[in-house]
Write a structure and sequence with these properties.
Largest sheet of chain A: none
Distance between the termini of chain B: 98 Å
Number of domains of chain A: 1
CATH superfamily of chain A: Fumarate reductase/succinate dehydrogenase, transmembrane subunit
Strand content of chain A: under 5%
CATH architecture of chain B: Up-down Bundle
Largest sheet of chain B: none
CATH architecture of chain A: Up-down Bundle
CATH class of chain B: Mainly Alpha
Shape of chain B: elongated
Number of strands of chain B: 0
Shape of chain A: elongated
CATH topology of chain B: 3 helical TM bundles of succinate and fumarate reductases
Order of helices and strands of chain B: HHHH
Helix content of chain A: over 70%
CATH class of chain A: Mainly Alpha
Distance between the termini of chain A: 81 Å
Radius of gyration of chain A: 21 Å
Strand content of chain B: under 5%
Number of strands of chain A: 0
Order of helices and strands of chain A: HHHH
Structural class of chain A: mainly alpha
Number of domains of chain B: 1
CATH superfamily of chain B: Fumarate reductase/succinate dehydrogenase, transmembrane subunit
Oligomer: heterodimer
Structural class of chain B: mainly alpha
CATH topology of chain A: 3 helical TM bundles of succinate and fumarate reductases
Helix content of chain B: 55-70%
Chain lengths: ~140, ~140
């Protein structure tokens, strides 16, 4: 009876499973599905401009409430990740050095994401924070 | 006597595998995801920057804001391109995900029918709204 193959924590032949490559792919799918469902809602809420200014303004008011404001930051974060990681995927597919640099590119886009999201979040929540906790 | 030139015997045509698609649809879909993705990076991130971050973000939005923007053909074309590219990009992404995770043939078929129906309705609604927008609607 042949002895069992030596067990390794690393799957044979690939470094893909469970590492940067896989998790960036999982996050790309999850953010993609979230964005798809938001797009669905967003086209329909915008379609209310064809009903009446009052109907449209009423639904837009809902987007200005603090809970929606938090979800807005989440949406922008999801879109920004999906966009940056999409560019990374294109680089992996079409740039000859892309596959070898896929991990470094992931950390690079995450750094860009953070650098954009910090001021971006500030501008998105500033009004809500002022309304909720402002002195006047 | 000179030797006759050597000519390869004719080969039989490659047999077509009946279960395989005759078209390159998946290749075109793959390419579309990358090309539309590049355009959407500009269109969608620009849209989010203007709508959510610039000059007070979402708090200045309303019917008057939309009317002001869609008075310009530039923003009409921007929004129409963004709608079509995003909806097709998203629908193809969902199609790939359904193909990956729905195991039974029937489930896969009906989920995709639901997806295509919903996507078509949203795409047509959005297009209609951009083309028939009336700033003086009461």
């Amino acid at each position: 009876m042949p002895s069992a193959a030596p067990t390794s924590r690393r799957p044979a032949g690939t470094l893909y499973r469970g590492r940067e490559g896989m998790w960036s792919w999982v996050a790309h799918r999850v953010t993609g599905v979230l964005i798809f469902f938001f797009l669905f809602v967003h086209v329909l809420d915008t379609a209310l401009v064809r009903v009446s200014p009052e109907a449209y303004n009423a639904v837009i008011e809902a987007y200005k409430n603090p809970v929606m404001n938090v979800m807005e930051v989440g949406l922008v974060g999801a879109v920004l990740y999906h966009a940056l990681n999409g560019l990374r995927v294109i680089a992996v597919d079409f740039w000859e050095r892309g596959p070898r640099l896929q991990k470094q590119m992931l950390w690079a886009i995450l750094a860009i994401w953070l650098v954009v999201m910090v001021p971006g979040t500030y501008f998105m929540v500033a009004r809500t924070v002022a309304d909720l906790f402002g002195s006047n | 006597m000179t030797a006759a030139p050597l000519i390869d015997a004719p080969r039989s045509p490659r047999k077509r595998n009946r279960t395989r698609s005759r078209t390159n649809f998946e290749l075109y879909a793959w390419m579309f995801m990358r090309l539309s993705g590049l355009l959407l990076v500009v269109l969608v991130l620009g849209h989010l920057f203007i709508m959510n971050i610039l000059d007070g973000g979402v708090h200045r939005l309303g019917f008057a804001f939309v009317a002001g923007r869609w008075a310009s053909p530039f923003w009409q074309v921007w929004d129409l391109s963004m709608l079509w590219l995003a909806q097709l990009h998203g629908t193809n992404g969902m199609r790939v995900i359904i193909n990956d995770y729905a195991q039974r043939d029937g489930t896969r078929f009906w989920l995709k029918m639901l997806l295509y129906t919903a996507s078509t309705l949203v795409l047509l609604t959005g297009t209609l709204v951009i083309f028939t927008f009336d700033p003086n609607i009461s």
